[in-house]
User: Fold this.
Amino acid sequence: MKSIHSYLPPDPHGSDPEYCGPGPKPVRKLRGCLSWLENAFIYLGAICILIMGVLITASVLLRTFGNSGVTDEVTIIGELMIGALILPLAYVGADRGFIAVEIFTQKLGPRFQQVLNLLTAIVGLLAVMPITYAAYMTMVDAYTSGGYFFGMLQLPKWPGATAFFAGYFLFFLRLVDLTVTDLLCSLGVIKPRPDLPSEEL
Amino acid sequence: MEPTVIGAYGFVVALVLMFLRVPIAFVLVSVASVCSLITYAWRPGRDFDFERGIRPALSLIETNAFDFIHSYSLSMIPLFIAAGHIAYHTRITTDIYAAVRVWLARMPGGLAIASLFGCGGFSAITGSSLACASSMGRICVPEMLRFGYGKQLATSTVAMGGTLGSLIPPSVLFILYGMFTEQSVNKLFMAGVLPGVLTMVGFILVVVIWSLWKPSDAPIPDELRYTLRDKFKAGLKGWPALALMTIIIGGIYGGIFTATEAAAISLAFVIGFGVISRRLKWADFLSSLKETAYQTASLFFIAIGAKIFVSFVSLTGVTGAFVAFVAGLGLETWMVLFFIVLLYVGLGMFLDSIGTMLLTLPFVIPVVEGMGMDLIWFGVVVVKLLEIGLVTPPLGMNVFVINSVVTKEIKVHTIFFGVMRFLVADFVVLGLIVAFPIISLLIPNAMS
Assistant:
């Protein structure tokens, strides 16, 4: 389900948004923090997937051999799904790994590609901004109301709501970075590396 | 402003942005968010009022984005994808080819048929046609070329074999179709089995006819001679893949577990096999999980976008207007189906399969449901059409991936010409599936 580029021979320079120039030191440090968080979040997402597998397998085994099951399994899996699906979004965004239709634009020149990159980043921001805001409202509501899921364990709602907001907020930050970088590239303030293929510029 | 007009504009803007290579997920979420806000804020006969629109629009976004993925049953997607990645690293997927190749080596087109089996098994287990084309393209194509196979046959076989995974369970397309049309994923998985087998038979027939018609394209290699002992030894190599398919298909068909549970058991099985056989390295395990998280997030962001987009479309009433329009045309059922086939084949040439499916379902399903068609059977038809879209020019993603992993002397058009012969079989199978719904419904109807 990744972009077709993931299966093509690797681009020696990758699609690192930082290619457009090193920038001042504080910006580079911030980007470093952002990358570190993205990496940490994608591994957290991976751990959530593994825990889901363990829980469901345990539930099947307990049902088959012990006539019991994992308490509140459905709720726990639902909460883990939030971690598994939302936390890695910023990493995917940084890698420009979302599926896009490239057939109509791949022959356009580098200048057009820069403008299209900028358009992508702006539309991305427009998409993620309302979800991030809605996620923030949900998280605040989960904390203030002390909401919980019905079930034996009465699990609180805040962990899932927090993961939901954290994942989207980091994704939003990455998209802001991409937008600024692509804007500066398309205005010619910073120069894209000359040896990149046109569609990656 | 009339909601239907906003809906129509939204759809057009979404298509334009998609063709400007804005990621499908971004397009769906942004267009649906902005247009929902406009729909709520700009009621017919009244002025635009931002305050009135923002709260319900945010509520619509939040409900669809959060509640949709807070789901037990959808967890089968990351679990199946993880099982596929780990199966790849433990070489379960590539062993299928190694096993079948020994048995079929002396048959006309034997290596190509073995590639079909290998690719079918690979893409079914990993759920990714592109990963199949990339990995098996590196294994099968060079080997076929080394034994004197024609370039068209060698490359197109692997490109087509990768598409088989869309129909054979577990298929991500079926899971998403089931979620968006509220159909049983278990039944959809079972409904895909016979059409998947039929497609495989069709492809094998193409290879056999091709090999008999032009023997120089598929010579029988003299050096590939195996004893019965070799064959049994090779056959044993394929047991993990066979066990995995039995767990998934047998477990669901027998009512032993649900599709979600089958996914978790598959993951446990491949990890267990990898650890016991010492084929699974820690680094591969970690990269498999990371790759799974990456793929799942990317896939689900589109699904979230589609969910919000579907809500927006139903909010504007465009779907109802479209259904009324189609009903007003007074078309026969077969004509509607014909247009649907044209729509999917056309879109499949330019859009990727998930995008095509999620973008069209809100419009197509009400029409199909209104005409009394079975949605399980229709799911098989849609997935079959999307499978065809993976290899049709000019996009045909599988073809481009194969082209990138084989020798530079093989051009894209060479592969496309080879694919055309297989497409004849694909359309014959599609015709059979459409004409005889029992092919799809036999197994799900017999399920316990």
Q: What stands out?
A: Helices of chain A lie at 25-66, 73-86, 89-94, 110-145, 158-187. Chain A touches chain B through 64 residues (CB under 8 Å). The mean pLDDT of chain A is 83. The radius of gyration of chain A is 21 Å.
